[in-house]
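Thread: assembly with ligand

MN 10:42: here's the input set. Chains plus the small molecule as SMILES. Want everything predicted jointly, not piecewise.
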Amino acid sequence: MIDTHCHLEQSDYNKDRDIVIERCKHQLQAIIISCSNLKHFNTTMQLVRQHRGFVFAATSVHPQYVKEYDEKDLIKYFEMIRSNKDNIVAIGETGLDYNWIKETEWQEKQKQLFIKFIALANQLLLPLVIHSRDAVETVVDILEKYKTKSVQMHMFTKRSLLKRVIDNGWFISVNTLLLRSKNVKKIVRDCPLEQLMLETDSPWLGIDKDGKIKPKYKVRNEPIAVRLVAEKIAQIKKINIENVDRQTTENAINFFDLKFKV
Ligand SMILES: [Zn+2]
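BT 11:07: finished. Tokens for the full assembly:
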């Protein structure tokens, strides 16, 4: 199994990051860290070098942080991404977030930022990892307008747009939200296994003993929780968990072009 979207670069793991990664190595084939901020870039690259062939990285500016970046920061960040291209498997998470950013002018800035990252992904021939909270339709419009082919929709929850996502040949990565959301269950039911991947969004979306999702300061999530997601997908699709594991792993390896041999 592969956790295709986690945030081990976050300070929540400062005390025991190596132990967490060791635990992952016993149960998973790879993890992909989604570095969503310039300030975490060096930590992320260091983890990729330290655990080459197991830890991979996607990198971008999470749309929620749009207000923290001016043109100068972006030029610097793009430079860093370009010169570390060999250690990066995707651009993301990028996209729009109208839940955190309500002002129209900043939403407009998010769009410009998003388009810049789409262009960067095209230039570097890397796939895109997409965040689209409360703005899925606009995000899908933009991705279609720019004819983006390699797209992973992270935390996709808009059933009415599922057909467009499937027809475009894009992927959906599913996390523990599946355990509590009827809506996500229906998305998983209706999406071919060939277009699904596993993720956790750790440290967020941790599950407590009663099966409820808790804030990260109460239950810190870990990438090994992809097993819970795979079990649920197997149950919904009435297939063996081995099939879910094999297909979602293959999807991730092909999509991100993961190289395991050092
Ligand atoms: Zn994320």
